[in-house]
Design brief:
disordered N terminus, 7 strands, PPIase_dom_sf, PrsA_foldase, disordered C terminus, isomerase, Peptidylprolyl isomerase, rotamase, 14 helices, four-stranded antiparallel β-sheet
Length: about 375
């Protein structure tokens, strides 16, 4: 519904770290392992006798080779997935899953192949970003319990392993982004704008909550909240000052001291009921109470528009298109690149038995 300032601060405090790990999403690692997670809580050695093969043997063992003389050793592969796990601890539950290991191998080969072909300009720009990110990462983890050394030790990696993955990531993405044309960005913007992806609105509201935002303790019943919201609307209909009433009545800590207003806000960040009202209410009129999971809102929509294609949005769209190109490259080209692959393979699911209704012999037409 309303922007959660606390969670936003936590998210942006790690933004410089997550920008590198976000490349995982281009390959949908977690979704690929989703069925495994649903069928069994976590992957375990008993699930597949070969599931732990990636973690056994010598670090110098070659587990995969690819065209142009490329090879990946067990030690290199384990460092690659351990760095990813350091930034995304939820990956730990998939470490012994053959499907996850195969997906990570696909990433590693793709990154290596593409990053090896970048031009000097892309490499120079990427090196600057890597230097900045490495400093930010060491500063961030240095403030955690045990410091950076503990993080490295717990994950069985060295600082150079992080830098290696970051270079591959930034080189790869820099190369893919350099191939995205301005016209492609324009076309993607128009396409997404047509689906209201960039809709923004300036909305003032007064929230009458059912629960305290900080403690989640009950404040009032649903009936009491609705009656209070109607009281607020009545005062506004009589010419009451919206900002003053927001300060007095609103339970939204993110807006009550700003006149209840969210200016040029992305409407897609809000819960469906609030988003719908922000999209459809007549401009500059006081709404009836709008119910959402947070309580009741008395709203006034002051403006609606589409976010312009500025430099920030261009960069965002270019990254989206680059990630899509990266994913497509991995899916189409990886099978032609890989030559040997000694990692365990996912067990094939048995084909479902035909149901009586699906059997020709069971069909009346077959008689």
């Amino acid at each position: 519904m309303l922007p959660n300032n606390t969670s936003e601060q936590r998210r942006f405090s790690k933004k410089w770290i997550l920008s590198m790990v976000a490349l995982l999403l281009a390959f949908s690692v977690l979704s690929a392992c989703g069925s495994k997670k649903e069928g069994a809580a976590t992957a375990s050695p008993s699930t597949s006798p070969s599931a732990t093969a990636a973690a056994t043997g010598n670090p110098s063992d070659v587990i995969a080779t690819y065209k142009e003389g490329g090879k990946i050793t067990r030690g290199e592969f384990n460092s690659f997935i351990s760095v990813n796990k350091m930034f995304s601890p939820q990956l730990a539950q998939f470490m012994t899953d053959p499907a996850f290991q195969q997906d990570m191998l696909k990433q590693m080969v793709t990154f290596r192949v593409l990053s090896a072909k970048v031009d000097d300009k892309v490499k120079a720009d990427a090196d600057k970003q890597v230097t900045e990110q490495m400093k930010a990462i060491t500063d961030y983890f240095g403030k955690q319990e045990g410091g950076m050394d503990k993080q490295l030790k717990d994950n069985g990696i060295e600082l150079k392993d992080i830098e290696s993955l970051m270079k591959m990531s930034f080189y790869t993405m820099g190369s893919m982004e350099s191939k995205i044309t301005d016209q492609a960005v324009q076309d993607a913007y128009k396409e997404q704008a047509a689906t209201h992806a960039f809709d923004i609105a300036t909305v003032s509201h007064i929230l009458i909550s059912l629960k305290d935002a900080a403690t989640q303790k009950d404040l009032r019943t649903k009936e009491e909240a609705l009656a209070r919201a109607k009281e607020v609307k009545g005062k506004l209909d009589k010419g009451g000052d919206f900002a003053a009433l927001a300060k007095e009545y609103s339970d939204d800590p993110g807006s009550k001291d700003a006149g209840g207003t969210y200016k040029d806000a992305d409407i897609n960040q809000w819960v469906p009921e609030f988003k719908q009202a922000a999209s459809t209410l007549p401009l500059n009129t006081i709404s009836d109470p709008v119910e959402s999971s947070f309580g009741y809102h008395v709203m006034k929509v002051e403006s609606r528009s589409t976010k312009p294609l500025d430099d920030t949005l261009k960069t965002q769209i270019k990254s989206q298109l680059a990630e899509k190109s990266l994913s497509e490259f991995a899916e189409k080209e990886y099978p032609n690149l890989i030559q040997t692959n000694n990692l365990p393979k996912p067990e094939a699911s048995p084909a479902p038995a035909a149901s009586p209704a699906a059997s020709p012999a069971a069909s009346p037409a077959a008689k």
